Amino acid sequence: AVKAKPQVIFVLGGPGSGKGTQQCAKMVEELGLLHLSAGDLLRAHMKSGTPDGNMVAEMIKQGQIVPSRVTISLLEEAMLKGGKQQVLIDGFPRNEENRSAFESQTGIEPEFVLFFDCPEAVMEQRLLSRQAGRTDDNIETIRKRFKVFVDSSMPIINFYEQKGKVRKINADRSPDEVYADVQPLVRGLQA
Ligand code: UP5
Ligand code: MG
């Protein structure tokens, strides 16, 4: 079980910037942190068939941000269950409502924010060639997701930038090159 509050790293960046699969998986494998993808938790929840689950399915299909009430309870449950002292939270918080609710409900402030910076054209190409069967990987929803990222999520990154907490990574490189920059930052937290 979790004794003290876990140390949290937020992993943020546009849709397709490479937050999930490649980078977080490597950190889990090599450094043993718990990885929670807010999007993965929401996609699992939408299969529950509950009214909330159906709302989540519709919002994801439209590229909209789910209310923090839903996302935070999924994250809290998964953090408790995971029982790790160091947690990567990928794809959250996405707007000011997410950010302030997480901080007030959990009392947790991130150690730092990994920001995967990537040009839209590159992200678009990656998402269009991904074969994960996601309901939001079509060009229409991808464009909506980009707009939501710029309008609602970039202000969160700017908020943490002003607090000196953003570690910006050039994500428009090979996965190994990206990881070479990520690894020492995360290792530094563990030292
Ligand atoms: N790829 C990755 N890195 C590469 C590299 N360096 N070079 C070449 N290819 C690379 O990667 C995407 C694809 O690119 C993969 O095929 C990968 O192999 C390749 P991935 O690691 O999956 O990128 P990621 O940044 O995780 O992209 P993802 O599509 O998951 O980002 P989103 O932020 O859009 O998705 P998420 O799952 O976080 O959210 C989906 C939706 O859920 C949101 O739009 C929203 O509706 C909802 N949501 C909320 O409402 N609230 C939340 O808190 C979270 C999600
Ligand atoms: Mg992802």
Automatic annotation (TrEMBL):
GO biological process: 'de novo' pyrimidine nucleobase biosynthetic process; pyrimidine nucleotide biosynthetic process
SUPFAM superfamilies: P-loop containing nucleoside triphosphate hydrolases
GO molecular function, one term: AMP kinase activity
Listed InterPro entries: Adenylat/UMP-CMP_kin, Adenylat_kinase_CS, P-loop_NTPase, UMP_CMP_kinase
Superkingdom in the source lineage: Eukaryota
Record's subcellular location: Cytoplasm
Leader sequence segment: none
One annotated Gene Ontology cellular component of this protein: cytoplasm
Alphabetized PANTHER family for the sequence: NUCLEOTIDE KINASE
Family: Belongs to the adenylate kinase family.
Protein name: adenylate kinase
